[in-house]
Structure formats: C-alpha cells, structure tokens
Amino acid sequence: MPLARRTDLGDSNYAGLEVEACHDLQRSLADTLDGGFDFLVAPLAHPRHRRPAPSARDPNAPQPAPFARSDLLLNSSQWSSQVVGKTSPWIDCDSASPPSRRDGEAALRQELMWAAHLSLHAVLLPHPGFSSANYARVVNQFLGALFSTALWVRVPVVAPEVEAAAKRGEPEPSSGTHFRDPFEHWANFRALCEGHLQLGVCLDVGCALPSDREIDRWIGEPVRALSLAPEAFITNKRGFPVLPKRHQDFVTRMMKRNVQVVLKGAGDTSGEEEGDVRDEMDTATTSSTQEPTPAEASIAINSLNAELSAAINKHPSRQRWEYVVYLFRKIAPTTEQELQEAGYRDYLQAPLQPLMDNLESATYETFEKDASKYIQYEEAVLAYLTDRVSDVDAKNGKETVLMVVGAGRGPLVRASLRASDRSGRKLKVYAVEKNPNAVITLQSLVETEGWGDRVTIVNNDMRVWNFSEKADVLVSELLGSFGDNELSPECLDGAQRFLKDDGVSIPQSYTSYLAPITAAKLWNDAKSRGDLKHMETPYVVKLHRHSLVAEPQEVFKFEHPNCDAVIDNTRYVKLIFSRGSDTKAATVHGFAGYFDAVLYHGPAGTVNCSIYPPTHTIGPQGENMFSWFPIYFPIRTPVDVPCGKDIEAHMWRCVGNSKVWYEWAVTKPTVGPVHNVNGRSYWVGL
C-alpha cells in the first residue's frame, strides 16, 4: 500500500524497511507488511556465508551449503514486488588483495544471478570507491542482461568523515580537510556504466546533510530511494521520532519526485516478540499442576492471539514510518496547472515547425488555455495605445491600425480588442494567418463576435503578402522556448515592411538564456533513441528532475523592428559559467534554454513575457505561464565537472538559404565535439 492515496503525485510513493539480518524471511516480510511498509530490503546471502571463488575452492572439498534461502519461501509475486535484495557488504571487487578481489567478483556475480532468477524489483549494491573500475565492469556485464531488475548503488549523501563528526556532535570538517566527495564516486561509477537506464542511486541519509547546493546536484540524478538511518531522526517534546527541518525539506523534495523511502531497522526482530509471548505462555502452562478446562484454554488462546497482534503492531520502526506518512500527506496539493503539466514532465518533445507545418486544432487549444500570456499581450497593447493616442485624439475618433501576424485562432485579436475597449482607443485590426484551417475559425469569430467592422481576415503568409496600408503596431506570438527557435526574427524581419516609420513591434525584443544542467533522465531518454540525430536535437520539455550546475547566462538578443542596413540573424557566443572555488563536483547532461521578451516599453510602463526563471511571468492567480516550456540541448557525452572548475560552452545560430539551425559545444573542463554540424540532425525550415 502506498504511503497515502495521492493521485496528484502519481500515487507511487512507497516505504520499505531495511534489515541487517533476516533469520526467518517469511516472518520478517509478514511483520514488515503488517507494520505498514510496502517492501523489505533484505540480504540476498546469509551474512556470515563468505564463500571463496570457484577457482580457489578445493575440488576435493565437500559441496558448500547453499549461500541463499530457497526461492520456495515466497511466491513469485512476493519476490518481485515485496522484496529488494542487497548484496553482501564484504564484497570488494577492487581490493588490492587478489584473493579478496577474486572472491568479491565471484560473489557479486552469484548474488546478481540469484536476484535475476527471483525477478526482484531491485538490488541494492555496495557504495563504490573513487576507483571502482572492476566493480563497474562486473555490474556492466549484468546491466545488459537484466530485464526487470534495477540496480541501486548505495551512496552516502555526505562523506563518512562528515557523518562521523556529526555523530560525535562535532562541527563539520573544514573545507580544507581532504576527503572524497561521495558524488564523485557515483559520477565515476555512472560514467563507467555509461549511465545505463537500470542503474540508479540509493542515498544513505544519516544525521548530517550537505549544503543546499550539494543537495541540488542529486535532484537531476537517477535517485530511486532514500535510506534513512535511525540517527537521522531526533525526538520531539512528546517523545516521538521526527526529522530536523532540513531533513524534512530534503525528503519532501525527493518524495515529490517519486523517490521511495527506506527506513533502516535496528536489526532482525522477526519472531522475537512472538517467542517471548509463547515462552510466557509455556511457563504459565507448565507451572500449572492442573489441565486447563476447554473454557480456560480458549481464553488463553485468545489472550495469546491478542498479545501476538499487539506485538506485531509494536513494530520497532512503526513510529518512524508514521512520521514519513505524515510528511508525504502534508505535501501541498498539486495545483490545477501542475496537474495539466504533469504529463509533460521530463517528456522530450521536438520543437514546432510553424513555417513548414500548419498547427492542429489541439495545439492551438493548448496555447489558448494560457490566460496569463494573453493578459500580458493585452497589457502591452493597452500601454502602447495609452502612450501613442492622446485622450483628445481618442475623442476625435483617431484609428490605430494593428496587424496580428500569425493570428492562429484569434487569441491575440481578442486581447487587442479588449485593450482597445479598456483604453477607449479605436482599433482597426488585420489578422494575418497562413493556415487555412485556422482562418475558418477566424471567419466564424468575425460573425459570432460581431467583429465585422473592426477585424479583417487575411489568409496569407506574412513574408510574401503585399499590402498598401501601413500599420502602427505589429503584434505576434512567434516566440519559441529559446526566443528565436521558431524563426521569429526571420518572420518579423519580413513583416516589418508593413510598419510605418515610427511603428512599433510587440514584442520589441527578446533575449535567450542558457544554463548547464544535471538531468540524467532527459539524457537517458535521448540516448535510448539509439542514434546521433536524437543526441543533437533540441527538445521542448517541462523540466522536473533536473538541477542547475551554474546560473543561466544571456545568449542571443533580437530587436524589432530591425533597422540594420544589412540584416544578419546569425549569432555566436562563448559562455563561461563560473562556479566559484568552493563549489562541489557536478555532472552536465546538457543545457536548459529560456527566453525573456520585452513586449512593450514606453512611458506607460514595461510589459514582459518570460520563462527565464528570475523573471518568469506569473498570472493573476499566481500561476506560471505554461505556453512555453524550456528547451533542452543534450550533449553526446555527459561532462563531469570537478570541484571549483568552470564550464566553457559555445553556441551558434546558423542561417542558410532554406533553414536555420543551432550548433553547440563544450570546451571546458573537457573538450567535446561540436553538435549538429551544418544542421545534420536538426533544423527549422524557412
């Protein structure tokens, strides 16, 4: 049973119990489930059963005892859904001792084969060291062969030295103290395994947590579970176990991303309470000189059952489980907008090709649901009319000519007419749209909304349409997730011939931004397509499980109308993402792109429309604008960035006779290839 019924969070958060030893698997699993937990994390092998490698075994020695329990103890459904196995803690595949290394390799292979035989949901692997090439080699041999079993690598959230100091109540060792960052151990191991989809992380959480910036790194990694040690909890005034505030925030952030929670038990207690109760009953029975009557025997049996039931309910980890349930239940309800966006989270979508393709009705419908965007456009037109048409001119009936280029199904026409009504300024609107299907809707609106004397529909491409009348203002929503990636510069440069000499474009300018991100899921999804094209295609995506490695930086800027004598929309920029000397190691899986557009700037005010995080447009009800998701530029090989090192990246916007495309590359801390050379994998058709 999940922690709580939360359909708004996917209803997929579960809690498990990890035990060090498990003498009676059936009883231990039953107690775990009765205690409220969903699965048991138990050793695959007997803890004391350390077996030598087959090559080192004396051929004349008797056959060793089975290293694991029989698979008949549980049925296949129980093995696959209620048990997570963990490998023997003594395994060291990279030991300096050849016999130990050989034994470790053989034991790991043996246990992983056994886990695959049982079809376990997951197996918990030991923490990798900084140098774990042999360990990764053995794991790699299984990753390609396991179909239903995931491998979770145990990684401490802080270095052992930091955790030890916290347990002793001492301050964290100074930054100058030399100890390895566990994230680097994981990054090296992940790189050796090529970031395989079935490889995940189980973070060990004790009484110490790293800084918020260090925690952020894990949001974009494939964290599958958090293992909470008993020492992570403190006791509140009422004597109940709770988590400190920072631990609460960390666990909550992870649960919102469907990360499972595992509580470490103090040990295997299966059968202990039952044994104590039965011993007391046996003592009471044997000390009596008389045989109990049937009624007395019935009372005794009922009493025994009640005590057994109470013993089960007194699971030693029950209170910690109840607290985790409480944390999950108190997560703020998902908003209506978040529910709409849920299906798009970390889902790769190819950007639109608005010039080559006619948009479908469903696409228009999705855009039109974003009220906050059209409110901003309405405010921009209102500010323009207020600035450019005086009250006297308005009373005298001065008419402003407004052209909506790329009118779609009319939302910008509606917004402009509302601004006209609010300001008391008269508008004459031309709605220019090349999609004949959308024009049908526009024509219907002219009739049903009574726009006949205010709106003229033009079914033509703005780049080739010729018209004698000049416009005072040109309104468009041709922006893409990166500002210019749907060819707004080329379209508006072609349409600006319709503007009067003092005419205004809405938007007036837009700037793109780029930031290196950790986003293992996005990178794996692109890689899983299995070809170069998908690793060199920018994707529109609602970023969810990701973290910024450095703050975004400005990339390209375009202004309209473009008054340059020779218009050139090619661009190039070299970006240095400075991370500071105190920053920890991180992994870059690509870049997130955003834009910030100035719709209008004048005496009446400045109106923006932005998905750039610091200036993200917020609607009147506090909702985010969702017409545009960020754009993701993958890189073919993830870049591991050492502590304190900067990132150097290059971005080109290239323009040909019939297409526009981007090229990008990383040159520090390591040099990588230029992506999408000559638009071989992705381009936007003119």
Rounded mean pLDDT is 87
Proportion of residues in helical segments = 25-40%
- Helix-strand makeup class: alpha/beta
Work out the oligomeric state of the chains in this entry.
single chain
* Gyration radius, rounded: 32 Å
Contiguous low-pLDDT stretches (5 residues minimum) are 267-292
Distance N to C terminus: 54 Å
Strand content: 15-25%
**Largest sheet, strands/sense/barrel:** 8 strands, parallel, barrel
Q: What does the overall shape look like? A: elongated
Number of strands: 26
Strand order of the largest sheet: 1-2-3-4-5-6-7-10
Please work out how many helical segments DSSP would assign.
Answer: 20
Notes on the structure:
By secondary structure, the chain is α/β, with parallel strands linked by helices. Helix content is 32%, strand content 23%. The chain contains 20 helices and 26 strands. The protein has an eight-stranded parallel barrel, surrounded by five helices. Strands 16, 17, 18, 19, 21, 22 and 23 form a seven-stranded antiparallel β-sheet that branches. α3 (98-118) packs parallel to α4 and α14 crosses α16. The longest helix has 21 residues, at 98-118. The protein is elongated, with a radius of gyration of 32 Å. 41% of the residues are buried. Mean pLDDT is 87; it is low at 267-292.
